[in-house]
Amino acid sequence: MNMKAQKPLPQAQTQVQVDLSDADTMKCEDCGNSVFIPAYFIKRLSPIVSPTGKEALIPIQVYSCGNCGKVPEKLKQDVEG
Ligand SMILES: [Zn+2]
Q1: Among 19, 23, 58, 67, which residue's CB has the most CB atoms within a 10 Å radius?
Q2: What is the pLDDT of residues 13-57, one digit of tens each?
Q3: Residue 9, pLDDT above cutoff 80
Q4: Can you give the pLDDT at residue 17?
């Protein structure tokens, strides 16, 4: 693997130019609130498949509604598959 310092990828520059006026604001499916707070799903990795041979707890950050606490289905699907 090449560990030398590299120039920024062209992709990074594209991301900076994204126009947020074209982006939708995600809203809570239950209450319509559009402010979310960080929350975590915790995945339990069984000792059988864990690389360390012990049970591992893996936090995965999602966002929950700041009003009612609901985690949007879209984010749940990303975690639970
Ligand atoms: Zn809500």
Answers
A1: 67
A2: 555 677 888 889 999 999 999 999 999 999 999 999 998 999 999
A3: no
A4: 75
Report CA(64)–ligand 1 centroid distance (Å).
8
CA of 24 to the centre of ligand 1 (A): 17
Q: Are 58 and 46 in contact (CB under 8 A)?
A: no
Burial class (CB in 10 A: 0-12, 13-18, 19+), 57: exposed
Check pLDDT > 90 for residue 12.
no
Q: Ligand 1 centroid to 50 CA: how many Å?
A: 35
Task: For residue 79, report the distance from its CA to the centre of ligand 1, in Å.
Answer: 19
Hey, where are the domains in the chain?
A: 27-80
23 C-alpha vs ligand 1 centroid, how far in Å? 20
